[in-house]
């Protein structure tokens, strides 16, 4: 029960406060970005890390005598998307393994980029929900049509 309360407080604080500590209309946009990451990966918003990683500060929760290490899904995706070498390979590792290879990595990348825009630390820089819907419709059209569109076409600027 204590573990669940800690997660709830952690997740709530991520969602409900902007840089100035105030509740914002962009909370839903942030939450939608997290949901998109959850859809891509089939993982919860906060995941238990099997091997300790020193690359990121993670939420540590003590249960009995052991320390369990947790990382937010946002941090996992940020780590992959922001890498310079080959972010596509990292994205492949985050995609729900039940999908096998029956997906377009370009579409996953576009969806992850859209989710990243939604979870921007500055609520004013997050897209409007209407813009998100349009971007997802364009992405869906591209998948259905089988044609390619430039990533800039999904830009929210």
Concise synopsis of the structure shown:
The protein is mostly helical and 157 residues long. It has helices spanning 2-16, 27-41, 73-81, 87-94, 105-118, 129-145, and strands spanning 46-48, 59-63, 66-72.
How does the SSE layout of this entry go?
Layout: H1 2-16, H2 27-41, E1 46-48, E2 59-63, E3 66-72, H3 73-81, H4 87-94, H5 105-118, H6 129-145
Antiparallel strand pairs: 1-3, 2-3
Helix pairs in contact: 2-5, 3-4, 3-5, 5-6
Q: Overview of this structure, please?
A:
The protein is mainly alpha-helical. The chain has one domain (2-154): Transferase(Phosphotransferase), domain 1. The protein is 50% helix and 10% strand. The chain contains 6 helices and 3 strands. The protein has helices at residues 2-16, 27-41, 73-81, 87-94, 105-118, 129-145; strands at residues 46-48, 59-63, 66-72. Strands 1-3-2 form a 3-stranded antiparallel beta sheet. The longest helix has 17 residues, at 129-145. It starts with a helix and ends in a 12-residue tail after the last helix. Residues 52-59 and 147-154 have low confidence and may be disordered.
């Amino acid at each position: 029960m204590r573990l669940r309360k800690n997660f709830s407080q952690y997740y709530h604080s991520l969602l409900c406060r902007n840089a100035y500590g105030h509740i914002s209309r962009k909370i839903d946009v942030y939450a939608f970005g997290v949901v998109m990451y959850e859809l891509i990966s089939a993982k919860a918003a906060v995941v238990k890390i099997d091997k300790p990683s020193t690359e990121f500060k993670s939420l540590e929760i003590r249960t009995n005598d052991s320390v369990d290490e947790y990382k937010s899904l946002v941090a996992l995706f940020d780590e992959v998307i922001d890498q310079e070498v080959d972010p596509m390979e990292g994205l492949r590792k985050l995609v729900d393994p039940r999908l096998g290879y029956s997906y377009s990595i370009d579409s996953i990348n576009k969806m992850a980029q859209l989710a990243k825009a939604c979870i921007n630390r500055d609520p004013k820089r997050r897209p409007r929900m209407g813009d998100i819907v349009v971007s997802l419709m364009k992405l869906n059209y591209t998948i259905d049509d089988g044609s390619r569109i430039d990533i800039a076409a999904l830009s929210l600027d």
